[in-house]
Amino acid sequence: MDSFASGFAGVDAAGDANSFVTYLDLIHSMPFFRECKRRSFVEMGIRPGAAVLEIGCGNGVDATILAGMVGAGGNVIGIDVSRTMLASAQGRTTGGHPSPGYAMSDAAHLPFADASFDAVRTDRVLQHTTDIFAVTKEMARVTRPAGKVVAFEPDWETFVLWPGEREATRKILNFWCDHIPNGWAGRTLPAAFHDAGLEGVAVTPSCLVITDLALAKKVFDLDTTLSLSVRAGILDSREAESWAREQAQAAAAGRFFSSLTFYLVTGTRRA
Fold this sequence. Notes:
With 271 residues, the chain is α/β, with parallel strands linked by helices. The protein has one domain (7-263): Vaccinia Virus protein VP39 (Rossmann fold), CATH 3.40.50. 42% of the residues lie in helices and 23% in strands. It contains 10 helices and 8 strands. Strands 1, 2, 3, 4, 5, 6, 7 and 8 form an 8-stranded mixed beta sheet that branches. Strand 2, helix 4 (83-91) and strand 3 (101-104) form a beta-alpha-beta unit. Helix 5 packs across helix 7. The radius of gyration is 19 Å and the shape is elongated.
Protein backbone atom coordinates (compact mmCIF):
# COMPACT_ATOMS: atom_id res chain seq x y z
CA MET A 1 0.00 0.00 0.00
CA ASP A 2 1.53 3.31 -1.11
CA SER A 3 0.84 6.55 0.72
CA PHE A 4 1.54 10.11 -0.33
CA ALA A 5 3.44 10.54 2.96
CA SER A 6 6.35 8.32 1.99
CA GLY A 7 5.65 7.46 -1.64
CA PHE A 8 7.06 10.60 -3.27
CA ALA A 9 10.54 9.45 -2.30
CA GLY A 10 10.12 6.51 -4.70
CA VAL A 11 7.33 7.28 -7.14
CA ASP A 12 8.56 5.00 -9.92
CA ALA A 13 8.44 1.97 -7.61
CA ALA A 14 4.90 2.70 -6.42
CA GLY A 15 2.06 0.39 -7.32
CA ASP A 16 0.24 3.23 -9.10
CA ALA A 17 2.88 5.80 -10.00
CA ASN A 18 0.43 7.92 -11.99
CA SER A 19 -1.67 8.51 -8.87
CA PHE A 20 1.13 10.79 -7.66
CA VAL A 21 0.81 12.86 -10.83
CA THR A 22 -2.94 13.12 -10.20
CA TYR A 23 -2.23 14.19 -6.62
CA LEU A 24 -0.03 17.03 -7.83
CA ASP A 25 -2.75 18.12 -10.26
CA LEU A 26 -5.08 18.42 -7.24
CA ILE A 27 -2.55 20.51 -5.32
CA HIS A 28 -2.03 22.84 -8.28
CA SER A 29 -5.80 23.36 -8.53
CA MET A 30 -6.17 24.66 -4.94
CA PRO A 31 -6.22 28.46 -4.40
CA PHE A 32 -4.08 28.19 -1.24
CA PHE A 33 -1.20 26.55 -3.07
CA ARG A 34 -1.58 28.79 -6.11
CA GLU A 35 -1.15 31.86 -3.91
CA CYS A 36 1.81 30.36 -2.03
CA LYS A 37 3.47 29.53 -5.33
CA ARG A 38 2.86 33.06 -6.61
CA ARG A 39 4.57 34.48 -3.51
CA SER A 40 7.52 32.14 -3.96
CA PHE A 41 7.92 33.29 -7.56
CA VAL A 42 7.97 36.92 -6.38
CA GLU A 43 10.63 36.10 -3.77
CA MET A 44 12.87 34.66 -6.49
CA GLY A 45 13.21 38.10 -8.06
CA ILE A 46 13.15 36.64 -11.55
CA ARG A 47 13.86 38.89 -14.52
CA PRO A 48 13.65 38.16 -18.25
CA GLY A 49 16.75 36.29 -19.36
CA ALA A 50 17.39 34.68 -15.97
CA ALA A 51 18.62 31.12 -15.43
CA VAL A 52 16.41 29.23 -12.95
CA LEU A 53 16.55 25.77 -11.39
CA GLU A 54 13.39 24.03 -10.12
CA ILE A 55 14.27 21.16 -7.77
CA GLY A 56 11.68 18.40 -7.68
CA CYS A 57 9.79 19.69 -10.70
CA GLY A 58 7.08 17.02 -10.47
CA ASN A 59 4.56 17.34 -13.28
CA GLY A 60 6.20 20.50 -14.64
CA VAL A 61 3.45 23.02 -13.89
CA ASP A 62 5.67 25.39 -11.90
CA ALA A 63 8.64 25.03 -14.24
CA THR A 64 6.41 26.02 -17.16
CA ILE A 65 5.26 29.15 -15.31
CA LEU A 66 8.86 30.04 -14.52
CA ALA A 67 9.85 29.56 -18.16
CA GLY A 68 7.22 32.09 -19.13
CA MET A 69 8.63 34.53 -16.59
CA VAL A 70 12.23 34.34 -17.83
CA GLY A 71 11.18 34.53 -21.47
CA ALA A 72 12.89 33.32 -24.61
CA GLY A 73 16.25 34.69 -23.48
CA GLY A 74 16.16 32.79 -20.20
CA ASN A 75 16.66 29.21 -19.16
CA VAL A 76 14.62 27.07 -16.75
CA ILE A 77 15.67 23.55 -15.82
CA GLY A 78 13.47 21.23 -13.78
CA ILE A 79 14.99 18.19 -12.11
CA ASP A 80 13.34 15.18 -10.52
CA VAL A 81 14.32 11.67 -9.44
CA SER A 82 11.17 10.15 -10.95
CA ARG A 83 10.90 9.07 -14.58
CA THR A 84 7.12 9.10 -14.19
CA MET A 85 7.16 12.75 -13.13
CA LEU A 86 9.60 13.79 -15.83
CA ALA A 87 7.51 12.06 -18.48
CA SER A 88 4.43 13.91 -17.22
CA ALA A 89 6.31 17.24 -17.25
CA GLN A 90 7.66 16.70 -20.74
CA GLY A 91 4.21 15.66 -21.93
CA ARG A 92 2.87 19.07 -20.93
CA THR A 93 5.39 20.83 -23.17
CA THR A 94 3.59 21.95 -26.31
CA GLY A 95 6.71 22.73 -28.31
CA GLY A 96 6.10 26.43 -28.01
CA HIS A 97 8.60 28.87 -26.57
CA PRO A 98 9.66 29.51 -23.94
CA SER A 99 9.58 26.05 -22.39
CA PRO A 100 11.64 24.46 -19.60
CA GLY A 101 14.20 21.72 -19.96
CA TYR A 102 14.17 18.65 -17.73
CA ALA A 103 16.76 16.28 -16.30
CA MET A 104 16.84 13.36 -13.89
CA SER A 105 18.91 14.25 -10.85
CA ASP A 106 19.24 13.73 -7.13
CA ALA A 107 18.82 17.06 -5.31
CA ALA A 108 21.72 16.28 -2.98
CA HIS A 109 24.13 15.84 -5.93
CA LEU A 110 23.25 18.46 -8.53
CA PRO A 111 25.00 17.99 -11.91
CA PHE A 112 25.65 21.72 -12.37
CA ALA A 113 28.69 23.93 -11.95
CA ASP A 114 28.98 26.41 -9.11
CA ALA A 115 27.06 29.66 -9.60
CA SER A 116 25.02 28.40 -12.58
CA PHE A 117 21.63 29.92 -11.73
CA ASP A 118 20.18 33.28 -10.79
CA ALA A 119 17.53 31.60 -8.62
CA VAL A 120 16.89 28.11 -7.27
CA ARG A 121 13.52 26.98 -5.96
CA THR A 122 11.94 23.92 -4.38
CA ASP A 123 8.33 23.38 -3.31
CA ARG A 124 7.24 20.62 -0.87
CA VAL A 125 10.15 18.43 -1.97
CA LEU A 126 12.55 18.59 0.98
CA GLN A 127 10.03 16.83 3.21
CA HIS A 128 10.75 13.76 1.09
CA THR A 129 14.55 13.96 1.54
CA THR A 130 16.54 12.61 4.46
CA ASP A 131 19.14 15.41 4.63
CA ILE A 132 17.76 18.91 4.17
CA PHE A 133 21.11 20.46 5.08
CA ALA A 134 22.91 18.66 2.25
CA VAL A 135 20.29 19.65 -0.33
CA THR A 136 20.23 23.27 0.81
CA LYS A 137 24.02 23.49 0.52
CA GLU A 138 23.77 22.19 -3.04
CA MET A 139 21.07 24.75 -3.82
CA ALA A 140 23.31 27.52 -2.51
CA ARG A 141 26.35 26.16 -4.38
CA VAL A 142 24.72 26.37 -7.81
CA THR A 143 23.26 29.84 -7.15
CA ARG A 144 25.11 32.87 -8.44
CA PRO A 145 26.30 35.59 -6.03
CA ALA A 146 23.35 37.77 -4.97
CA GLY A 147 20.98 35.13 -6.38
CA LYS A 148 17.95 33.81 -4.50
CA VAL A 149 17.23 30.43 -2.93
CA VAL A 150 13.57 29.75 -2.12
CA ALA A 151 11.94 26.78 -0.40
CA PHE A 152 8.35 26.07 0.64
CA GLU A 153 7.76 23.21 3.07
CA PRO A 154 5.19 21.97 5.57
CA ASP A 155 5.91 21.05 9.16
CA TRP A 156 3.80 17.96 9.80
CA GLU A 157 4.01 18.33 13.57
CA THR A 158 1.60 21.26 13.04
CA PHE A 159 -1.00 19.02 11.36
CA VAL A 160 -4.35 19.41 13.17
CA LEU A 161 -7.56 17.38 12.86
CA TRP A 162 -10.89 17.68 14.67
CA PRO A 163 -12.78 15.79 15.97
CA GLY A 164 -11.35 12.53 17.27
CA GLU A 165 -10.58 10.86 20.57
CA ARG A 166 -7.45 12.63 21.77
CA GLU A 167 -5.04 9.73 22.16
CA ALA A 168 -6.15 8.05 18.94
CA THR A 169 -5.80 11.34 17.03
CA ARG A 170 -2.32 11.91 18.45
CA LYS A 171 -1.29 8.41 17.39
CA ILE A 172 -2.56 8.94 13.84
CA LEU A 173 -0.99 12.37 13.42
CA ASN A 174 2.35 11.27 14.87
CA PHE A 175 2.31 8.19 12.66
CA TRP A 176 1.72 10.37 9.58
CA CYS A 177 4.49 12.82 10.57
CA ASP A 178 6.98 10.03 11.24
CA HIS A 179 5.99 8.19 8.05
CA ILE A 180 7.27 11.13 6.00
CA PRO A 181 11.06 11.04 5.42
CA ASN A 182 11.40 14.53 6.93
CA GLY A 183 8.23 15.49 8.76
CA TRP A 184 9.97 18.43 10.43
CA ALA A 185 11.06 19.98 7.12
CA GLY A 186 9.39 23.33 7.76
CA ARG A 187 11.07 24.03 11.08
CA THR A 188 14.44 22.79 9.79
CA LEU A 189 14.67 25.14 6.81
CA PRO A 190 15.86 28.34 8.55
CA ALA A 191 18.80 26.55 10.19
CA ALA A 192 19.63 24.78 6.91
CA PHE A 193 19.64 28.10 5.02
CA HIS A 194 21.96 29.68 7.59
CA ASP A 195 24.20 26.62 7.54
CA ALA A 196 24.46 26.91 3.74
CA GLY A 197 25.85 30.43 4.14
CA LEU A 198 22.79 32.21 2.79
CA GLU A 199 22.14 35.77 3.91
CA GLY A 200 18.97 37.71 4.71
CA VAL A 201 17.08 34.53 5.60
CA ALA A 202 13.37 35.30 5.90
CA VAL A 203 10.55 33.01 7.04
CA THR A 204 6.87 33.46 6.15
CA PRO A 205 4.31 31.00 7.57
CA SER A 206 1.05 30.13 5.81
CA CYS A 207 -1.74 28.02 7.27
CA LEU A 208 -3.82 25.71 5.07
CA VAL A 209 -7.33 25.18 6.49
CA ILE A 210 -9.63 22.50 5.10
CA THR A 211 -13.15 22.00 6.47
CA ASP A 212 -14.33 19.64 3.73
CA LEU A 213 -13.64 16.06 4.83
CA ALA A 214 -13.70 14.72 1.27
CA LEU A 215 -11.00 17.19 0.23
CA ALA A 216 -8.98 16.58 3.40
CA LYS A 217 -9.01 12.85 2.67
CA LYS A 218 -7.44 13.55 -0.74
CA VAL A 219 -4.89 16.12 0.40
CA PHE A 220 -3.84 14.31 3.59
CA ASP A 221 -4.42 10.76 2.34
CA LEU A 222 -6.46 10.05 5.47
CA ASP A 223 -7.93 6.69 4.50
CA THR A 224 -4.56 5.22 3.56
CA THR A 225 -2.96 6.69 6.68
CA LEU A 226 -5.63 5.13 8.86
CA SER A 227 -5.22 1.73 7.20
CA LEU A 228 -1.44 1.86 7.51
CA SER A 229 -1.65 2.85 11.18
CA VAL A 230 -3.77 -0.25 11.86
CA ARG A 231 -1.37 -2.43 9.88
CA ALA A 232 1.55 -1.01 11.88
CA GLY A 233 -0.23 -1.70 15.18
CA ILE A 234 -0.53 1.98 16.05
CA LEU A 235 -4.32 1.58 16.37
CA ASP A 236 -6.53 -1.47 16.49
CA SER A 237 -9.38 -1.82 14.01
CA ARG A 238 -11.99 -0.84 16.60
CA GLU A 239 -10.20 2.43 17.39
CA ALA A 240 -9.76 3.19 13.70
CA GLU A 241 -13.43 2.58 12.91
CA SER A 242 -14.53 4.76 15.84
CA TRP A 243 -12.18 7.55 14.80
CA ALA A 244 -13.33 7.47 11.16
CA ARG A 245 -16.94 7.51 12.30
CA GLU A 246 -16.34 10.66 14.38
CA GLN A 247 -14.83 12.38 11.35
CA ALA A 248 -17.80 11.44 9.17
CA GLN A 249 -20.32 12.59 11.77
CA ALA A 250 -18.56 15.94 12.17
CA ALA A 251 -18.46 16.41 8.41
CA ALA A 252 -22.19 15.69 8.14
CA ALA A 253 -22.82 18.37 10.77
CA GLY A 254 -20.50 20.87 9.07
CA ARG A 255 -18.03 20.78 11.95
CA PHE A 256 -14.98 18.99 10.54
CA PHE A 257 -11.70 20.94 10.78
CA SER A 258 -8.13 20.38 9.64
CA SER A 259 -5.08 22.60 9.21
CA LEU A 260 -1.38 22.48 8.40
CA THR A 261 1.30 25.17 8.58
CA PHE A 262 3.76 25.70 5.72
CA TYR A 263 6.89 27.87 5.72
CA LEU A 264 8.21 29.92 2.81
CA VAL A 265 11.92 30.46 3.45
CA THR A 266 14.15 32.68 1.30
CA GLY A 267 17.84 33.50 1.35
CA THR A 268 20.45 35.27 -0.78
CA ARG A 269 23.80 33.85 -1.92
CA ARG A 270 26.64 36.02 -0.68
CA ALA A 271 27.91 38.45 -3.29
